[in-house]
Q: What sequence folds into this?
């Protein structure tokens, strides 16, 4: 079946993926494979803008690849690769930087946030991050880019950059990508307040054991006004209930919705039910992951093969780009 176009997305090598990654990005990456030619990139070069040490980079890449494959990324059709394996992106980054106005980069909210987060390491790569990201996207002539809403400024920046480049060199080689904002729901962490994330340690790794998962679920914050089991709770503001709506059967959700409000079910019981349903849902994923983890060479082969396929597309684009610039 002919696909509708090419999807490209990138994610930093953050290691074992958590529920927020799974629900917000990975499931969507998997689904897009049915309709699009997909290129998914583990952006290790981007990661260098913020990491203090690179000692975990390889392990994190390996763990993340395992999670993605076990979740349903199909490496025979989809190109799954590591950013640094395709050095053409650095070359395109250099050419794109010449049509990038400095002020545009310093104005980006994403840059300003990084400056706040790491005032002692405001490196040049951090400023150029959106240019490298744009290079990665357009190198593969991508039509659609699934990203979280926080990345909207980067996508708009990419589109403007494409227009500037094509205008400056009087060409049409680069294609304006379309952002596809897919993070329908913001998955909250165990605290029930902040977005789930590794840095806040409020996350649940999808690859963890059922026991670990249950232990983490038990730490979840529920309706703070509910002090005792005999108090009525409010599911509308309870993160456990939100997760039940994703992982539990409709009858169970309805039952909790009624019983919580009249103190018919306690928070511990409610959490254990959620943990059981979550573990059941993730069981096939975990089995597949264990199978893949037993064969690390296979994982390396997939990334190697993905790199070869990505490079072939990238080099073709670069031939056209060099020609458009009229490089001697
Ligand atoms: N900046 C993205 C993020 O932090 C990651 C990323 C890098 C990306 N290159 C990309 C996303 C290209 C989409 C397309 O989430």
A:
């Amino acid at each position: 079946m002919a696909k509708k176009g090419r999807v490209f997305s990138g994610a930093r090598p953050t290691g074992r993926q958590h529920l927020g990654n799974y629900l917000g990005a990975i499931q969507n990456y998997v689904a897009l494979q049915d309709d699009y030619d997909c290129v998914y990139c583990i952006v290790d070069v981007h990661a260098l803008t913020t990491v203090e040490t690179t000692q975990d980079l390889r392990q994190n890449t390996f763990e993340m690849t395992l999670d993605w494959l076990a979740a349903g990324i199909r490496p025979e059709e989809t190109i799954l690769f590591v950013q640094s394996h395709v050095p053409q992106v650095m070359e395109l980054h250099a050419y794109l930087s010449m049509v990038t106005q400095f002020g545009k980069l310093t104005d980006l909210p994403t840059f300003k946030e990084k400056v706040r987060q790491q005032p002692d390491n405001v490196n040049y790569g951090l400023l150029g991050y959106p240019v490298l990201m744009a290079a990665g996207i357009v190198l593969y002539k991508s039509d659609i880019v699934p990203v979280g809403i926080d990345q909207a400024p980067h996508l708009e920046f990419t589109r403007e950059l494409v227009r500037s480049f094509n205008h400056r060199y009087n060409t049409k080689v680069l294609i304006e990508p379309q952002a596809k904002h897919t993070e329908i729901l913001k998955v909250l962490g165990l605290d029930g307040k902040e977005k789930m994330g590794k840095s806040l340690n409020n996350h649940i790794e999808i690859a963890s054991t059922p026991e670990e998962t249950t232990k983490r679920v038990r730490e979840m914050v529920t309706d703070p006004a509910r002090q005792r089991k005999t108090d009525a709770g409010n599911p509308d503001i309870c993160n456990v209930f939100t997760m039940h709506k994703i992982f539990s059967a409709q009858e169970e959700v309805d039952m909790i919705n009624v019983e919580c409000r009249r103190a018919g079910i306690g928070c511990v019981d409610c959490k254990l039910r959620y943990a059981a349903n979550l573990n059941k849902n993730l069981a096939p994923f975990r089995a597949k992951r264990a199978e893949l983890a037993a064969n690390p060479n296979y994982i390396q082969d997939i990334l190697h093969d993905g790199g070869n396929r990505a490079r072939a597309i990238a080099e073709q684009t670069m031939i056209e780009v060099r020609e458009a610039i009229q490089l001697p």
Remarks:
- The chain has a mean pLDDT of 96.
